[in-house]
Design a protein that fits this description.
Elements lengths: L3 H20 L5 H8 L3 H7 L3 H26 L2 H23 L4 H29 L8 H16 L5 H12 L4
Helix pairs in contact: 1-2, 1-4, 1-5, 4-5, 4-6, 5-6, 5-7, 5-8, 6-7, 7-8
Length: 178
Amino acid sequence: MVRSDARENRARILEVAREAFVGGSDVSMNQIAQRAGVGPGTLYRNFPTREALVLAIYQDEVERLVGSVPVLLAELAPLEALRQWTVDLVAAMRKKHGLGDALSPGGHQAITEQTYGPVIAAITRLLDAGKADGTIRADADPRDFLQLTGALWRAAMGPEDRSASMLALILDGLGARR
């Protein structure tokens, strides 16, 4: 069992590193340790390499997104839950764009392999809820939806954020035919 102070240190390191890497990938591991208020030994015990730290940030964000699905479905109609979840996903993807610079090609592959299944499962749960209540078409495929969201975060990065209008088009296309 991990001590509470160790969990708190790890969480603080992740939060500080997330903010630091989003601002630019040139921040050093020692700067992250200083900003988190921990010694270098604590940082390296938790994250032996810079890439391990970046991968943990990605994993933490995916776990948060996947974990939000039951709450969204409890509070919102399935199509609206999918809309909100996708907005959160796009925001996370935009933030992670800066993190990507800190990953090697192997790191990109590793995070894709680690997160693809849980993200597809989350989208499946949202789509299935909409299929069950008749608001989402029966042939909606979570893999197609995930691929379309890739275009959303790129649209959000431009001078004019078009992601909201593009998401509306995607969700309109998912609507069950009446």
